[in-house]
């Protein structure tokens, strides 16, 4: 064996055997070797024994050795560590904790250059928030024919709606082969492939390609869910309800739905229309009776708004039910995407009658906004309500508390009906997750993502933002 310029080459097997004979190897299973070491004095025990490195078996090819054309830099080695109680305990500690107790291995690694990229942003009030790009993945342009991943998903993007199989074509699930039963394991069709599966094997919901002409997430089997899941970012930005232009934007006397808001909206598009109608009525109040409208300073300092239409009826004990939406002000001063909410409440006091109320709940601080980020929160307050015919006024102040926090809110409303009374009010406000799912198409989207500015403002909510700008201009005048 000869070494030159940091490279090692072996001429033949016979030469290798001659070189290996120069070293003495210790057999770990030979008791005589350990007995011989016990007779050495303390100085010889402290000496390090160097072991030669045999050639890597991967370097042996066809009964010979590699020619050494690929030159690799030699790695210095200090030999095996000394076997003692300290090293054994350190190894056990590293195995149990998943890291080295002294972090010796990390100290020898080369240090990577530091980066000055920060994902944290600072608001005007000093609060720190995480940049929206951390929450929202940037989907690749898979719909473009020249995109790199277009061919991989071409069969999915250009898929045609299938012909559903009749229920009688199978008596068991096409995936798990479990027999169908009336109550515990019913039949469900996959909207993408048309097969019949049980409830356990078809729990996922996804947006389907454009040729299916479905804007709501549809139920699919587990196999189709895995195929459609990588494309959900593209489909959310193209075919979801939030990405469409609002169709119902006429709110004058020529449209019947503009005369009266219904207390319950079946979709977030309907809630947006109802909110625009409510804001339009408050603009009329600001123009005709400015002293009865929302103060401009209150509206300017609002961190969020909840707009609802609630039906209230009863004597001594009143019942309330209604739906609406909530928006929050982002750090740049613009309004966030809307989130659908449901309100159910009871009232007790000297009251009688029935009325239909259009509420605007003003949130003055970030704690009140976080309250509406909860899946459900409670409110307790007192109010005075007077309604006679198409014109009425309701003024309330309440305290709201939920899992995300608590805060004070002020409620302004216009009411229609015949109602009079002073009462103590209690309400439960819940986020309508199913309504948000049908509108945005993203099953992982939370209320906090929507209200804290991590979701782009949808095209379908443009009439809402226009109505908010109009109300601000009316209040300033």
TrEMBL record:
Select a single GO molecular function from the record's annotations and give it: zinc ion binding
The record places domain FYVE-type at: 167-229
The question of whether Nuclease is a record keyword is answered with no
Query: What InterPro entries does the entry give?
Result: SH3_domain_YSC84-like, Ysc84_actin-binding, Znf_FYVE, Znf_FYVE-rel, Znf_FYVE_PHD, Znf_RING/FYVE/PHD
Keywords, A to Z?
Metal-binding, Zinc, Zinc-finger
Superkingdom of origin organism: Eukaryota
Q: What's the protein name?
A: FYVE-type domain-containing protein
Origin species, per record, is Erythranthe guttata (Yellow monkey flower)
């Amino acid at each position: 064996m000869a070494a030159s310029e940091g490279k090692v080459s072996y001429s033949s097997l016979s030469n290798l055997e001659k070189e290996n004979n120069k070293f003495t190897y210790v057999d770990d299973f030979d008791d005589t070797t350990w007995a011989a070491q016990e007779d050495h004095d303390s100085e010889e025990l402290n000496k390090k024994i160097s072991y030669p490195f045999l050639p890597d078996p991967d370097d042996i090819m066809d009964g010979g050795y590699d020619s050494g054309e690929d030159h690799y830099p030699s790695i210095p080695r200090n030999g095996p560590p000394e076997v003692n109680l300290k090293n054994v305990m350190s190894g056990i500690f590293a195995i149990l904790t998943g890291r080295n107790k002294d972090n010796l291995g990390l100290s020898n690694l080369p240090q990577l250059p530091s980066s000055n990229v920060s994902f944290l942003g600072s608001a005007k009030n000093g609060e720190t928030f995480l940049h929206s790009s951390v929450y929202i993945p940037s989907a690749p342009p898979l719909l473009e024919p020249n995109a790199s991943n277009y061919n991989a998903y071409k069969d999915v993007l250009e898929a045609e709606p299938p012909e559903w199989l009749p229920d009688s074509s199978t008596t068991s699930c096409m995936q798990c082969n479990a027999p169908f039963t009336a109550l515990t394991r019913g039949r469900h069709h996959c909207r993408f492939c048309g097969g019949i599966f049980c409830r356990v094997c078809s729990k996922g919901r996804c947006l389907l390609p454009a040729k299916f002409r479905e804007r709501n997430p549809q139920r699919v089997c587990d196999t189709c869910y895995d195929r459609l899941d990588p494309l959900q970012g593209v489909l959310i930005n193209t075919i979801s309800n939030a990405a469409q232009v609002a169709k119902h934007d006429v709110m004058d006397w020529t449209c019947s739905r503009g005369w009266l808001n219904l207390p319950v909206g079946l979709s977030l598009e309907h809630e947006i229309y109802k909110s625009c109608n409510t804001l339009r009525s408050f603009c009329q109040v600001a123009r005709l009776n400015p002293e009865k409208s929302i103060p401009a300073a209150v509206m300017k300092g609002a961190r969020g708004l909840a707009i609802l239409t609630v039906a209230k009826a009863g004597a001594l004990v009143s019942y309330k039910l209604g739906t609406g939406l909530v928006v929050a002000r982002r750090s740049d001063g613009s309004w966030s995407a809307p989130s659908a909410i449901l309100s159910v409440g009871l009232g007790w006091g000297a009251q009688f009658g029935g009325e239909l109320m259009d509420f605007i709940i003003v949130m003055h601080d970030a704690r009140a906004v976080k309250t509406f980020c909860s899946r459900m929160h409670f409110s307790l307050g007192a109010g005075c309500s007077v309604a006679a015919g198409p014109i009425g006024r309701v003024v309330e102040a309440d305290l709201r508390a939920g899992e995300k926090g608590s805060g004070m809110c002020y409620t302004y409303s216009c009411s229609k009906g015949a109602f009079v009374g002073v009462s103590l009010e209690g309400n439960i406000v819940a986020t309508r997750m199913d309504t948000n799912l049908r509108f945005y198409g993203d099953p992982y989207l939370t209320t906090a993502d929507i209200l804290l500015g991590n979701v782009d403002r949808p095209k379908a909510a443009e009439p809402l933002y226009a109505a908010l700008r109009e109300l601000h201009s009316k209040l300033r005048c």
